[in-house]
Amino acid sequence: MEGTLVAWSGSSDDSQGVVDPSDTKQQRRRQRNRVAAQRSRKKHTEKADELHQHEQLEQANAGLRREIEGLQQEIKAWSQVLAQHEVSCVLGGRNLLLDLLAAPTPRPWALEGLELDVS
């Protein structure tokens, strides 16, 4: 019976060594489809994760911008207090605000390239 194909009876019967060639093709096709579906699901999951992370970063960025704006307002308010104090200061006619701003201390807003209006 060597070299002779046995007719397919509707199912594969590996216990007797009878395998329909179309059955193995179908199994390979199913395996390829399974792998492709896994890749597709993984890609969709990664895309959703990226979108979620992007939304979180946008929210954090907006919060930081609000904080910067609040701090700039605080600087402006303290600058006005200082300017009012300079009028009655007993230390003399020195402009303390200009001295403070000219001091070589690091200013975080300068690192970001933000414009700071202290007038």
UniProtKB/TrEMBL annotation:
Comp. bias intervals (Low complexity) = 9-21
Q: Which SMART domains match?
A: BRLZ (SM00338)
Among InterPro entries, the record links this protein to: AP-1 (IPR000837), bZIP (IPR004827), bZIP_sf (IPR046347)
MF terms from GO for this chain are: DNA-binding transcription factor activity, RNA polymerase II-specific; RNA polymerase II cis-regulatory region sequence-specific DNA binding
Disordered, as annotated region: 1-62
The BZIP domain sits at 23-85
Composition-biased stretches, type Basic and acidic residues, lie in 46-57
Which Pfam families does the annotation name? bZIP_1 (PF00170)
Q: Where is the composition biased (Basic residues)?
A: 27-45
A GO cellular component term found in this entry reads: nucleus
PANTHER family in alphabetical order: BASIC LEUCINE ZIPPER TRANSCRIPTIONAL FACTOR ATF-LIKE 2, FOS TRANSCRIPTION FACTOR-RELATED
Name of the molecule in the record: Basic leucine zipper transcriptional factor ATF-like 3
